[in-house]
Amino acid sequence: MKFTFNIIYTTGFVKYLSLFIFSLLKWSDCSFRLVANGCSSEEKRLLQTICHKNARLEFLTLPSKHMMKHGDALDYLQSLEQSDYFCFMDSDILATGEFLREFILSLDQSAGVFSGFPIWCNNEEHMLPETSPGMFGRHYRTTNGLCIGSTYFAMYHNKILTQVLRATAMSFNKYQWQDIPTQYQNQFMKMGLKHETYDTGKVLNLLLLVQGESLVFKEVPSLKHIGGISACFALEHGFHWNYLQYRTFKKKILAWLFEGKFRRTLMTLAGIKEAKIPRLEITDDLLRSHPNRNRFMSYCYFTQLLQALFEHRPLPALPDMGSAEVEKKVEMLTKDIINFFKEFREQLPVN
Fold first, then answer.
1. Is the pLDDT of residue 198 over 80?
2. Beta pairing partners, 198
3. Is there a contact between 31 and 57 (Cβ–Cβ < 8 Å)?
């Protein structure tokens, strides 16, 4: 069987993440469609240049002047798919060995096969807590072992997927509970899967389960996913910050909120005397409590690493991720990226 994976690139990281496609070509016989989503003209030319040099690569630009939502982009790509399988993966995934065999075996029994758990997560974070307000991207399994899939790396039986999309008029998009039709709400409640929000692709995967299909998540060691590169870049509004800059910015924001003129103004308006509001000490412990701390730490570190490699600068020190398990994965992936850069840098359009 031949597979074509769609890889969506958003602006800001095309230059750096283009390295990873060479690892996928090396360790598979798949084809890859490099999809530009809101990329600059220069970034589009870079992707086209890479595709012109390999028959297993093709280039596609999404039909929008602005960056499309991830769910909309997947809906569009699926509508174009004519083969038996609809496959896609994030642009910050690389391969360190053969990775397709186990997925092919699982496709014989499942409507969808998924992989690519982010490196910044502890292993137990894949489980969806029953009390979680949202069904987030990292959640690929419920507490009773039901696979709910992900959009990091996915391979669907396209015919089955198309039937569900047409029958339900739903999509790959994110959903709020109140926006889901009542008939599907009732089915999700019977499954014990009522949540306030559902991340990209989650509702569609649940609809596949409702119709009696099975889904499988396979964690293949030779497929490694940084996780969150594009999303974190968008949140930072285009600023490539290292961790020190990120930490300093957070401290300034917190200090502005809880100290100085803004604080005194709030107290005056509320008629509160100084002694009644304790001073908030801005510490690294406070920053560590942020729910997305590891995601941003990973983003900042790997951004800095890739910039250092491409721009011939000293490599950054390994970050403190607050978890020996995650730090070991970060260290191993760092070595993989460095080795791949040495192996493929002559093939990159920009050195």
1. yes
2. 135, 175
3. yes
